[in-house]
Amino acid sequence: MPKISFSKGFTRRSNTPVQSTSSSRVSSQDTFEDDLKRTKKGLAKKARQQLGGYARDAISFGFPRSHFILFIVDSQLVRGVFYDRSAIVESGILDLGKSKDRLIFSKMIQQLRGLSPEALGIVPGFNTSFMKDPTTLQYPGPANDNEHPSSGKIQGSFYTCPYGKKETRTVKVGRVLFRSNGIFGQGPLVMRVKCVCEGSGQCVWCGKKLVLKLSWPSKTQASEKTFMYECKEKATGEHAWVLNHLPEIYYSFDIDFSAESPQAQLKEIFGEKYEMRVVRGIIMEELHPLSSLETERECAQVFYDIVQCHHWAWKYPQILHRDISEGNIMVREKNGQKYGVLNDWDLASWLNTQNEVSTSKFRTGTKPYMAYEQHSSQWQGPHRFRHDLESVFYVILLLVSLYSSPTEKVRFPSTGDHRYERWHKQDDGVLLGQKGNIVCAGNWQPFPQPFFSGFNSWLIALQRSLLYGFIGLNMHIMMEIDAQQARENNEESMGVPYFDDDTLGGHFSYEKVVSVMHRFKKEELNTRGREWQKILQVPV
């Protein structure tokens, strides 16, 4: 694979946490603002934002790819920009008014034209017509709210993945079921697939409804299959109920970036400042989205199932999910019943390794559903189970506020996007303020759509638990500050009572959340595990 080289003298500019991990911009020592003093004021910032949007759309919603290369051009000034899921790398400025720079730029374009699809960022293993003949690509038609133009190019293609030590397996790609709306495509891409050998009678995947999930986690991140294996080891006897609420994984594989890849070169240049990733693929059972639910009570049961499953994983195999979102809550239909499934354990962690994780990686999750504290630049972790429970609260809040039913999204033509809809695009500072206005406000009220009116009591009760918890936490912090100042002044100070940060002083614990969610509209929901059945005194 040809090497991609921009310029010498790269340095790290910033470290900005986004979604599941930290992202850095790396640049030449002179910033773009300095380089473009001769141009219009603010151009550099606007150009960066525009290119960042293009790159984000290409990586999140385009054909599956690991990186993207763009050029920012202003008159005769050109800069190359490389985007991937760990960093943004900018080259030095080229002045096309200079013959030397024109020669460099022409050679860069020639080199890029000669690169293989993999070198240009396309995930290796895909076989589709436009990769062989680019003339088959057509300009996309009008935008479709439900599907991105590239989905049509993925559908019908073939994907060959490693299988075992030396073999491969090939699947035909069907419909794209899910694309993450995360920053720089750090979430998964899920596609319906069918094994090409299906019908041979010897294929272990024969007759199963399959999906292929591709993601780009840190190379050091344990795989979802590893976590699910540990869960299955524990899910025996009276714990077997939880299997209905966990994904069924048939096969998992990792593809490392080669030594000649841009990623390997960046790792060599920047060392620990650059996070090396892998392409991770999982062949798994196809599940159904929340939109497959038909009644308000079915939705309530699914959310209650998620809390029960999350508690079991935290207590027994001691795994913390760390990425509760609407897209990670799925539905399994089995024997005429619907079960909530907690899916996508890509960002999970073992409880006993929480203290070993760097603070930059505590800030995991999908922004609209991340816990209030996690949006603060001063928050240093760790990620606690209550943060995931708070994420469940936001999933419910956004669903019942933005949807008139599980399948129909409300449109707000007179006022534009609903304020919660904007959470998908807003930065941490804005989200910190808006979520603070919810969890720290004594007069907050939800306004669910009529179909979801039964969730009003749930949301009020959960918000009050968070409110009382944060009041207690703030009082505890003030007492600690007062005690510290007294010690510094050699004054006598009163002892600071213990405060359980895991549960916000007992106000937002599993017990509190389950006590709210085990009933819906004054009727009992299905409590799955024997442990909670005993606590709630629910007849078996």
In short:
This protein is α+β, with helices and mostly antiparallel strands.
Q: How would you sum up this structure, described in words?
A:
The structure is a single chain. The chain is an alpha+beta fold. The protein has a domain of 104 residues. The chain is built from 13 helices and 21 strands. Strands 7-8-9-10-11-13-12 form a 7-stranded antiparallel beta sheet. Strands 1, 2, 3, 4, 5 and 6 form a 6-stranded mixed beta sheet that branches. Strands 14-17 form a two-stranded antiparallel ribbon. The longest helix has 33 residues. It is globular and about 75 Å long. The relative contact order is 0.09.
Keywords:
alpha+beta, six-stranded mixed sheet, 540 residues, disordered N terminus, 21 strands, 13 helices
Binned, the helix content reads 25-40%
End-to-end gap? 62 Å
Tell me, briefly, the overall form. Answer: globular
Q: How many helices?
A: 13
The radius of gyration computed from the alpha-carbon positions, rounded to a whole number of angstroms, is 25 Å
Structural class: alpha+beta
Give the averaged pLDDT, no decimals: 84
What's the β-strand tally? Answer: 21
Strand content: 15-25%
- Strand order of the biggest β-sheet: 7-8-9-10-11-13-12
Q: List unreliable stretches of 5+ residues.
A: 1-33
Oligomer kind: single chain
What's the helix and strand layout?
Blueprint: E1 10-18, E2 21-28, H1 32-35, H2 43-61, E3 67-74, E4 77-84, E5 87-90, E6 94-95, H3 99-113, E7 126-127, H4 129-132, H5 149-154, E8 158-163, E9 167-179, E10 189-195, E11 210-215, H6 224-234, E12 249-256, H7 262-270, E13 278-285, H8 296-315, E14 319-320, E15 329-334, E16 337-342, E17 349-350, H9 385-402, E18 403-405, E19 408-409, H10 428-439, H11 456-488, H12 510-517, E20 519-520, E21 523-524, H13 530-536
Parallel strand pairs: 2-5
Antiparallel strand pairs: 1-2, 3-4, 4-5, 4-6, 7-8, 8-9, 9-10, 10-11, 11-13, 12-13, 14-17, 15-16, 18-19, 20-21
Helix pairs in contact: 8-9, 8-12, 9-11, 11-12
